[in-house]
Amino acid sequence: MTADRPPVTTPAASIDPIEIERFSAMAAEWWNPHGKFRPLHRFNPVRLAFLRDRICGHFGRDPQGAQPLAGLRLLDIGCGGGLISEPMARLGATVTGADAGERNIGVASLHAAESGVAVDYRCTSAEDLAAAGEQFDVVLSLEVVEHVADLEGFLAACGAMVKPGGLLIAATLNRTVKAYALAIVGAEYILGWLPRGTHDWKKFVKPHELAAGLRHAGLTLSDVQGVTYDPLNDRWRLSRDTDVNYLMVAVK
Fold it and tell me: Family per UniProt (predicted)?
């Protein structure tokens, strides 16, 4: 590790075994658009468009091109079943999908093979990848930071893997009363969109906390974007409202 990189904590310090077991138990559901991960399937179009446009804008690519991310190496950390990894690979990126849940990686690898999409899936942690000296043009951490045991260490590891001039894009939930009401009470208990206990409100991350962690990891904040749900049209859209879901972009 070079002297100018932020320190990386003990390998696997960010992994919360309870969180890994919770999502591993649902692994078979990842690619079922009507199953336990239905909210992510509904969320994906707006997330993917945001990722494509921000990455293309940063690297001077045409987002409407056939494979606008060709030549870029991308890490999807906490990739789950590969709902983001596969589309990023289809856009041309050389994708590594990493997750600490062995069953998640098994499901993701099988689906990619059946779909004919090349993704390098690995059952590992951000800390171990950083310790191995892995470097990427883009690091994605989507709906992950609210599940880690050591936020500062996780962000330090992620930041260490971003190449100079590269991007880190994170998506998470804000720790607000509104987020508790909508993301936990509404989504888990009333609407049943997610299994009860999927989220712990105390682990939600306020934007200023995430921004501080990214700065400590050697990154510069470049964009914050809210994402809100439109119940009338059953779709998500970008907005200025960061009270519940938000995306954050940072540059190395």
Answer: Belongs to the methyltransferase superfamily. UbiG/COQ3 family.
Which phi and psi angles does 132 have, rounded to 5°?
-80, 0
Instruction: Write out the binding residues.
Output: 47, 78, 99, 142
Dihedral, CA of residue 68, residue 71, residue 77 and residue 83, to nearest 10: 40
What is the distance between the alpha carbons of residues 95 and 174, in angstroms, rounded to a whole number? 28
User: CA 177, CA 150: separation in Å to the nearest integer?
Assistant: 23
Place of tokens 């962690």: 213
What is the value of pTM for the model shown?
0.87
Residue 110 to residue 59: CA distance in whole angstroms: 31
Q: Is 141 exposed, middle or buried (0-12, 13-18, 19+ CB in 10 A)?
A: buried
Q: Could you tell me which residues are annotated as the binding site for S-adenosyl-L-methionine? A: 47, 78, 99, 142
Residues 78-99 pLDDT 10s: 999 999 999 999 999 999 999 9
pLDDT value, residue 7: 43
126-137 CB burial, b ≥16 within 10 A, e <16: bbbbbbeebebb
Q: Which of 185, 247, 196 is CA-nearest to residue 47?
A: 247
- Listed residue (60, 46, 100) closest to 77, CA to CA: 100
Among residues 44, 40, 45, the alpha carbon closest in space to that of 29 is found at 40
